[in-house]
Amino acid sequence: MLDYRYNTFLVLAEQLNYTRTAEILLMSQSTVTKHIQYLEENLQVKLFTYKGRSLSLTDKGVLLKKRLSLVSHDIEELKKDLVKTDAKKSYVIGVSRTIGEFFLPKYEYFPPNDQNGNYDILVENTTELLKLLDQKRIDFALISGPVFRPDFEIHPFYEDELVLACSPNHPMAGVEIPVHALCVDNILLREEGAGVTDCLTQYFQPYPEIIKCLKEKSRIGNINLLKSYLLNNEGTGFLYKISIEEELKSGNLQTIPLKEMTMTQEFYLVIRNDFPDKSHILKLLSIPNVK
């Protein structure tokens, strides 16, 4: 069991505020200070420093936080393993909005059929899911956007096309346009942090004027709300094709092809490298490739 003062350190390392840490731990601020002073004297290193009025971790503090987080997680897993019970394990799966609303409902294999586990599903955008993985608040994630993280194990399971959609009554419906013509129209975009947004940024890197233009456009954090604006012919919008399949089939939405550009994006199963049940989850989540 870790010395209780290390728990104080972990909370302060997260909050970077002595008052909030004391409130969370239900102790006085002076007690928090004494805990940190004890650790610094015992370890013979400085763990925190002030930059102006802002508290921050030193390099040694960052290292200790990283190592302690792993140790704390291992201890909690060990405690679970030592408890003799027939209770099922619980897993929290984070899924991006496109996957949660339009991909998963089409496949009967999800949530996985696991007699030894329960699965809760949390829907968020790509950036928030990666943060939750970092914080170990979710066990793994299904993400519909670019992921560049060497500390995560990444498994592609699906590939979709990113399209510019509009009402069939829009003057550009079905008309191929050059990339530089994008900013002429009222383009509606997903919020910052969405996989769609990250994918667009990646594809338009060679076009800085387009990147600048898109940053000035309206952001909508709900896919169905964005689609309602398109259906009412109030602009055009970039969406994954899977999220507008029904509207395309019915003719209620059409696409605007971009000249000499087709944008595709793989969807990923993302797991932390230190996740203890990794092989079990990978076996259960053998998501078929439906490209």
How would you characterize the overall build of this protein?
- With 291 residues, this protein is an alpha/beta fold.
- The protein folds into three domains: 79 residues, Winged helix-like DNA-binding domain superfamily/Winged helix DNA-binding domain (Arc Repressor Mutant, subunit A, Orthogonal Bundle); 89 residues, 3-Layer(aba) Sandwich (D-Maltodextrin-Binding Protein, domain 2), CATH 3.40.190.10; 105 residues, D-Maltodextrin-Binding Protein, domain 2 (3-Layer(aba) Sandwich).
- It contains eleven helices and eleven strands.
- The strands form two sheets. Strands 3, 4, 5, 6, 7, 8, 9, 10 and 11 form a nine-stranded mixed sheet that branches.
- The longest helix is centred in the N-terminal third of the chain and has 24 residues.
- The radius of gyration is 24 Å and the shape is elongated.
- The mean pLDDT is 85.
